[in-house]
Amino acid sequence: DAGVTQSPTHLIKTRGQQVTLRCSPKSGHDTVSWYQQALGQGPQFIFQYYEEEERQRGNFPDRFSGHQFPNYSSELNVNALLLGDSALYLCASSLRTSVETQYFGPGTRLLVL
Amino acid sequence: AQTVTQSQPEMSVQEAETVTLSCTYDTSESDYYLFWYKQPPSRQMILVIRQEAYKQQNATENRFSVNFQKAAKSFSLKISDSQLGDAAMYFCAYRSAGGSNYKLTFGKGTLLTVNP
Q: Which of A43, A100, A107 sits opposite B95 (nearest CB)?
């Protein structure tokens, strides 16, 4: 049973660039959430996707956008990168009917120079 | 808005002994879920244990158990017979049970060191 997978594992960008991170949910899951984890902090909720729609959004600017595909995989896009966007980006998947338990992927480490 | 507080940035325990990690939370809701997640240096967040607020019985998973005090809004994690593999960052998290609030709210974490 494949767990949550994310790509790439590491990424280095410069300020002002754009980045796309990818996530494949655990087999059978239909809901994907994205979190940002700054160094030494707990994860912060960015948004959640279900049925290809953004269902809930956290306190992140519009530079952060996402997409969910018919196969339930998801992308996180960040435009106009800032130094402060450097973080570990975590994807979590769940079943809509059981959304209280979210299963996390290994994350993508983004460094903005 | 809900908040989660972990007051112990770091804890250490001797192998085979017991350690308790603290977590308090603030909410006006009556129905919710609480979680403990473990994040080893490999980064992958792993679910350790889950507690439904409507259940009075404390959750237990093998060597891991919780002490859930709803009135006090306290949710501590006890690890018995600690093993070297338990060394990790531990996060306490909250999620609403109803409405349209699906997000997990995390504390800042407690770094657990296990000494041989």
A: A100
Q: What is the mean pLDDT of residues A39-65?
A: 94
Decide if A33 and B103 are in contact by the 8 Å CB cutoff: yes
Average pLDDT over residues A94-101: 71
Distance from CA of B48 to the nearest CA of A (A): 11
Rounded to the nearest 5 percent, the helix, strand and coil shares of chain A are 5, 50, 45
Detail the DSSP E strand segments found in B1-116: 3-5, 10-14, 19-21, 24-26, 32-39, 46-52, 60-61, 64-69, 74-79, 88-96, 105-106, 110-115
**For A98, how many CA atoms within 13 A lie in the half-sphere containing its CB?**
9
Close Cβ partners of B1 (under 8 Å, ≥ 6 residues apart):
none
Between A40-54, A85-99, B20-34, the lowest mean confidence (pLDDT) is in A85-99
Q: Provide the pLDDT for residue B108.
A: 96
Residue A97 confidence (pLDDT) above 70: no
Q: Which helix (H) or strand (E) holds A77?
A: strand A74-78
Task: Give the residue from A59, A102, A103 with the most B CB atoms within 10 Å of its CB, the best one to mutate.
Answer: A102
Paired sense of beta strands A10-13 and A108-112, if any? parallel
